[in-house]
Specification:
It is a single chain. It contains 4 helices and 18 strands. Helix content is 15%, strand content 47%. The protein has helices spanning 47-58, 120-125, 185-190, 212-220, and strands at residues 2-6, 13-18, 23-27, 31-34, 38-43, 64-69, 74-78, 86-92, 97-99, 104-108, 111-117, 131-144, 149-154, 159-163, 167-171, 175-180, 195-200, 203-208. The chain is mainly beta.
Amino acid sequence: MKCEILYPGAFPMVRVYLDANETVKAESGAMVAASPTIDIESKMEGGFLGALSRKMLSGEKFFFQTLRASRGAGEVLLAPTVPGEIVLLELDGVNEYMVQKDGFLAGAEGVKIESKMQSLTRGLLGGEGFFILKIGGLGQLVLNSFGAVHKIDLKPNEEYIVDNSHLVAWSSTTTYNIEKASSGWIASLTSGEGLVCRFRGPGVVYIQSRNPGSFGNWIRQFIPVSE
């Protein structure tokens, strides 16, 4: 499986090349087009309990679509629901990533996806809920963001502060704490930032340039209120 990003920027697609009998798993509804050699299957990643836990706990889709090159090599075009960039990561079987619930777009057959429970503090205050996706295994992983993606490389013990609503994914080698954006609660809340995540390396953190919650609030002001 090989991937190529088309139309990089706000409205990209990813072209996935599959050899005969190869498969790619993708978010439900992500397929835009495919070669006639491709068959589409619906699959519960990790079995029924695994799919149920992802749906109930992390808010992810219950089913993934699996696209298989059953009748010879072919290609698949995939796109995320929201406008924003796509990033390709190569998983080596050792390194794992924690991914916010809307960040997964597609992955090779060898990519493994689980729901991971966060601590009480992170679940209540982190903005991502109590469960996030833990993704490891082998092969290419395709993530998407809301807005542009920015990569932050952290050296050992190097710290960086991120607004939790801008998180996309972070390597499992990093650690983070949730804290007030300012020294006082009033200043934190009135600044519009509230809570932030203080990451510590080594590892990488991928962030998105737009805040989905803030965008939703902005859109909401234009929706007529029914009497």
